[in-house]
């Protein structure tokens, strides 16, 4: 036991010295060396994802990576695969795990840990036994420690880093697995044999790899590295910058200018950003506003550090530029030494480590080189396009070649085409080629013009991204001409898209419309980004959208600060709480028109299942509370709200009574109110009557169609209308369960001389010829001001036509008459056509769905004023 304990301590000592030995040089692009991260207390445990991790945590909270690894190691399958993209901190996490074991912090029932970087084992072509491999690896372990290891495999942990960089296949089917620890086989066979348990069965494994499907044969717990999300970034910045004020300044700046890019979750990228910010802040220079500017600052910094002359610096960048497209093509995105020479790197070999990742010994032929980040690779490509005519060719050709691979190339070209932005690089490398700049600019102008004329959001957004990188307000104004279709829907944009859209929109002095129709998930972050553009827009369309609480807060604040006059939230599913938040923002806004109607069957076009929302969310304005909120807006005094469409909600009598109070308030400027289908009954009509009679009421249009007002309600409304001074000019009462007595009363109101009504919609009441008769008599009366009358579906027959024609002939005002869905027949057609031809006022007669035969079609068609 003592002996084995000594062996363990020896192993721990070698692990500590072996791993703590700094490896490679620390460069701006390569990330901070793990040892330095750990020793300087900058290690931040990221969150872990993956199916199995969710199983581990019963309460659904994301687990910390360290915890997830430890938990997975104590499970039955003691094989853990750590998956994360390039620069996501895999190596750092592995080294932390192993160092903490060696320091005695955890996993103390393990006696031995073997740590291998598989990328370095690519060159191990020798055949050897497991015993030799172990001894070679931990050279200070005496041979007598090997037997205890072999006897207690459950006390052994193997850690393999860089599995994706291992060039040999580990699938058991391609190896003859070995089971004898003293048998010499190929290294790949050794590793496969360990993985598959023919050697040291029972030992534990932690394997790190970039996302790959190569490991499906391995029974394991997969843990996904989620990288640095916002909280981890904040923690990292705080540890990087010792001064909290500097940390905060840097963090806020990064989140604003870069936080919307996925690659910000990469710890390596965070290190690069912190390093470059620190340099700039120490030199009291401005921090970069865009991704292009970050890359410009990084490259400037790297080149300066090499202290080469202008010509050499340019040659070096050109050599990198030749390598960049080649790396996109090759499978492992890496180049050999021989290839590197062909690009012109000979004299710079000692400096390449600053720009490239070097795997292997620089002097060896097996050494390979690759770019550490795709952004930098594409940036170099864009640079070399401008530096040297002979490398690039035309812009189109370059895009064609990099299609499907490059993500930021067009952005970088745009950023670099601006003289102010590229100046620091030109100072170091010499002038960019003016012809290439011209090529790009003319391509940009013509292709953006074409794209912006099209109705394709994605094509627009691509050019908005480029304009954002160019950071040139005049260029935006030059490109976004009146022919650009900026009113098309930009719904469903990513956060990154929203940033560019906002930039472009805020460069334009006047914004007619911001159309975000069908934004299925308008998040707080996205809304925050768009606040400036929303504030500047006269009209905001968010119909068919769903908004988070945070998004509504930002929308409300944008509108309260801005110039927005119209807001369309049709079929937007706010619910009571969010509606309240919105209303609070509207109280002293310039908003004049709000649409907040809902359809009974929402989501007809939407990908959301209807069940995703509760009933109350679908029918938002259904309580007293929401109407109270709306009332507060209407009576705030500073509100400019004149038009409000809340059709298809559930206002009900209680809600309408609340609104009625507002209508008679002297502060209320509301002129049009649409309450189509809102579960209102006759019970609230006395309140409505009181409001309409109030001297302060300015409501001129009211639509109450599809509510059960009934005879009692209808008669009360007539009382209101009969009062001299009633402001109503348009009244919608279709399908309100009105009766003949109501029609009679309406007729007498219209001819009383008190009514200002110009439009009356009373269709969908089966009152028949006798019922409609009083209305026709009123139309003929000189006091009646009606211009529009809708008696659709009122069971009219040919018997009414004499009165009808007389009314039309007598009226000086009537222009539109709706008679669809009645029972008129061919007999009536000649008279109707004649009266339409004769009438100087009449503009349209609608006769759809009556009982006409084909015989009269020609006659009707000839009269241009009849809609059939
Ligand atoms: C270490 O011990 C714990 C608790 O005794 C156990 O759950 C775990 O499986 C052991 N780990 C290994 C790697 O043997
Ligand atoms: C909406 O966005 C939030 C935050 O990004 C996300 O958590 C949620 O899953 C999204 N919902 C849908 C339906 O896409
Ligand atoms: C009105 O007309 C419809 C369809 O023509 C008919 O079904 C209904 O019975 C009629 N109603 C009355 C009250 O005449
Ligand atoms: C009018 O009649 C047509 C044909 O029968 C029908 O499709 C339509 O729904 C009716 N209109 C109304 C308002 O009911």
Question: Can you give a write-up of this model?
Answer:
With 868 residues, the protein is an alpha/beta fold. The protein has 4 domains: 224 residues, Rossmann fold, CATH 3.40.50.300; 58 residues; 160 residues, no CATH class; 168 residues, Leucine-rich repeat, LRR (right-handed beta-alpha superhelix). Helices cover 46% and strands 10% of the residues. The protein has 36 helices and 25 strands. It has a 13-stranded parallel sheet with strand order 13-14-15-16-17-18-19-20-21-22-23-24-25. Strand 24, helix 36 and strand 25 form a beta-alpha-beta unit. It is elongated. About 2% of the residues have low confidence. One 2-acetamido-2-deoxy-beta-D-glucopyranose binds next to loops. It is found in: Cytoplasm.
Structure summary:
With 868 residues, the protein is an alpha/beta fold. 46% of the residues lie in helices and 10% in strands.
Keywords:
868 residues; alpha/beta; Rossmann fold; seven-stranded mixed β-sheet; 25 strands; elongated; binds 2-acetamido-2-deoxy-beta-D-glucopyranose; cytoplasm; P-loop_NTPase; ATP binding; LRR_dom_sf
